[in-house]
Write a structure and sequence with these properties.
Shape: globular
Pfam families: Peptidase_S9
Low-confidence stretches: none
Protein name: Fermentation-respiration switch protein FrsA (DUF1100 family)
CATH architecture: 3-Layer(aba) Sandwich
Order of helices and strands: EEEHEHHEHEHHEHEH
CATH superfamily: Alpha/Beta hydrolase fold, catalytic domain
Structural class: alpha/beta
CATH topology: Rossmann fold
Largest sheet: 8 strands, mixed
Number of strands: 8
């Protein structure tokens, strides 16, 4: 039977989902939600992964879920990159806090996410070498390109973002742009899924990054699983979720596709 527990690490609310058993040490899978979502909205994914023998951690990002404020709804899109960078900065704090409770270890950590959570996942991979593998649903590792696209949309919608603010954002996110720093991936197993009809985070981002990895001399493409799904927009399909669950189990538990 699966259990769902509420935890707070450094005042960050999260859900801990796992099979109710006596096994203390399990592979850990962090799953990060998308913009306007919250930790509890991804319990279907946590269920799929936890059934494979994982301890699944679902944190709330800044201005989401229990961390919402009266201004959160109005500010989320303007603070999109601040939210992502803060989630990346908070990630080791969550791991260390859970380790103190005997619930995690840097020796067996995987990460994944959807949309904003997938974009955060790519940035975390660029930052923390101890992450073992990752799953990205409809994300974009090209921080610079995606930010510029968001600025264009913001300008067209009348959102007043000054040029100086844009330049400051681009400077802050540059070190986390995995497409510009492929060596930081360090051959870690990566599962990428994207619906071909996605207009919110266009499919072209995942396609371009996949081709970049396949052509790179610094990455073994055998460690990449790319799943492009026809007729699907900005929503994870059941098939994609099940495929990801099987893949992460093979990598983290059965030691397939892995390099460690």
């Amino acid at each position: 039977m699966l259990t769902i527990k509420n935890e707070y690490i450094e005042n960050i609310p999260l859900l801990l989902v796992e099979e109710e058993d006596s096994i203390r040490e399990k592979p850990i899978f962090f799953f990060l939600h998308g913009i306007t979502s919250a930790k509890e909205h991804n319990l279907h994914i946590a269920y799929t992964i936890a059934q494979k023998g994982f301890r699944v951690i679902l944190p709330d990002a800044l201005h989401h879920g229990e961390r919402e404020t009266t201004d959160s709804e109005r500010m989320r899109y303007r603070l999109f990159w601040k939210i992502i960078l803060q989630s990346i900065e908070e990630f080791p704090l969550l791991v260390e806090g859970l380790a103190k409770k005997g619930l995690a270890s840097k020796e067996n950590i995987a990460i994944g996410g959807t949309s904003m959570g997938a974009i955060t996942t790519f940035g975390a991979l660029a930052t923390y070498k101890w992450i073992k593998s990752a799953v990205a649903f409809m994300g974009a590792p090209q921080y610079d390109q995606f930010a510029k696209q968001m600025f264009q949309v913001a300008d067209e919608s009348g959102m007043d973002i000054k040029e100086g603010e844009k330049e400051a954002i681009l400077a802050k996110i540059e070190p986390y742009d995995l497409s510009s720093h492929l060596e930081l991936l360090n051959n870690r197993p990566l599962f990428i899924w994207h619906g071909k009809e996605d207009k919110t985070v266009p499919f072209a981002y995942s396609l371009a990054f996949t081709k970049q990895l396949q052509e790179s001399s610094t990455f073994n493409s055998n460690h990449l699983t790319f799943y492009a799904e026809d007729g699907v927009d900005h929503k994870i399909s059941r098939k994609a979720m099940l495929e990801a669950g099987t893949w992460i189990s093979e990598v983290m538990i059965e030691n397939k596709h892995a390099i460690y």
